Amino acid sequence: MTNVLAKELLDRLNAPHATAPDGLPAEPWLTLDLSAVSTAGVDVSVFERSTASAPIVIGVLADAPTGAAVSLMRACTVTLSTRPRPEPQVVTVGDVAVALEKLTSAIQAHPVAAISLGRLLRLQARLPVQEALVAESAHYSFLLAGTEFATWLAGRDNRRSQETADPVEVTLEQGVLRIVLSRPARRNAFNAAMREALCDALAAAAGDPTLRVEISGRGPDFCAGGDLDEFGTSRDPAVAHLLRTARSAGLALDRVAHRTTAFLHGNCIGAGIEVPAFAGRVVARSDARIRLPELSMGLIPGAGGTVSLTRRIGRWRTAWLALTGETLGPSVALDWGLIDEVRP
Asked: Which helix (DSSP H) or strand (DSSP E) does residue 122 occupy?
């Protein structure tokens, strides 16, 4: 672990970045001790600008933060503490050393995806939803063409399932448009057909401002994430980027968010939390399990999660979920604001 104080870190960030022979940063992450931090000689606004193009910066907070620490927490990728803190920059963990090991192991395994994620999350904080989704899609597309994803893809069997049933069921009753993800045999895995059907249903809702919208999933899981059978099937990542931005379920949902409720249960993985997090109200059953697994594939969340989650829980806690792939239960999700209600 490289643990440094603010002035030392700022000097290091402003120095020419050392790179390894493969072109990656020689230090993919740095940790910042916020407990004994002093901002003497440090312009916090300069610090924030310096970290924008830096590797991952992990804050460590052993005690209640001073005013200086609170300012610097905003510039970190995420801050770890064993003490519960209300700030969205902080993730409470049982053991800081264990949490650091989890973070740094994930960064070490997929440094390109991890550093890309950290930089993207900082950028998106200043962007409207549509522009932020374009930025996410562009990052996702270049990672699809990268070696980290290629390595993951090479270890998978090339299987494609054949289905004929509609992936989404849509009904209209008494002013409520009910949209049900309906691939229960595949745990409602989010594929191209489901995306298209969901976009069409949400477009219909956008065309009638009197409608309320409810989104749910059939079977034991709301949605177990992107359909892995379709990962890597696009031959041209640039064309995939154009399609992803033209037919974004997240953007379509954002346009009717104020009158939409999403009902989550079981596994809500990848797209299974990224898309419904755009809804104005998210209700989760007590068995809901939320996870962002994309980094382990050499990718970042690509169904809108770097946009929807950051607007609910902040970029710092989003970074923690995306970097570690940790499962989040409904209690913490409610406390963070990722969901709005828990039902039995």
From this structure: helix 111-124
Q: What does the alpha-carbon distance between residue 250 and residue 189 come to, in Å, rounded to a whole number?
A: 16
Q: What are the distances in angstroms from CA 89 to CA 47, 78, 92, 313, 331? A: 16, 6, 10, 9, 18
Place of tokens 């809108």: 304
User: Hunting for tokens 């989040």 — which residue is that?
Assistant: 328
Q: Which of 121-125, 234-238, 303-307 has the highest mean pLDDT?
A: 303-307
Report the candidate in 285, 288, 293 with the shortest Cα–Cα distance to residue 324: 293
**pLDDT tens digits, residue range 143-177?**
999 999 999 999 887 666 666 689 999 999 999 99
Residues 54 and 3: their CA atoms lie apart, in Å, by 15
Q: Return the C-alpha torsion angle 273, 277, 278, 281, nearest 10.
A: 140
The DSSP result for 132-195, as a single string, is: HHHHHHHHHHHHHTSHHHHHHHHTS--------S-SEEEEEETTEEEEEE--GGGTT-B-HHHH
Q: Answer yes or no: are the C-beta atoms of 251 and 307 closer than 8 Å.
A: no
H or E segment and range at residue 6 = helix 6-14
Residues 191, 270, single domain; the answer is yes
141 and 72 in one domain? no
Q: What is the pLDDT of residue 220?
A: 98
Calculate mean pLDDT across residues 80-108.
Answer: 95
Domain span at residue 96 reads 3-109
Structural domains of the chain, count? 2
| Residue type at position 208 | D
Q: Which residues are registered as beta bridge partners of 260?
A: 213
Q: pLDDT digit string (tens) for 209-228? A: 999 999 999 999 999 999 88
Question: Is 142 contained in some domain?
Answer: yes
CATH code, 254: 3.90.226.10
Residue 233, in any domain of the structure: yes
- CB-CB contact of 313 with 282 (8 Å): no
Is 161 found in the same domain as 91?
Answer: no
Identity at 219, one-letter amino acid code = G
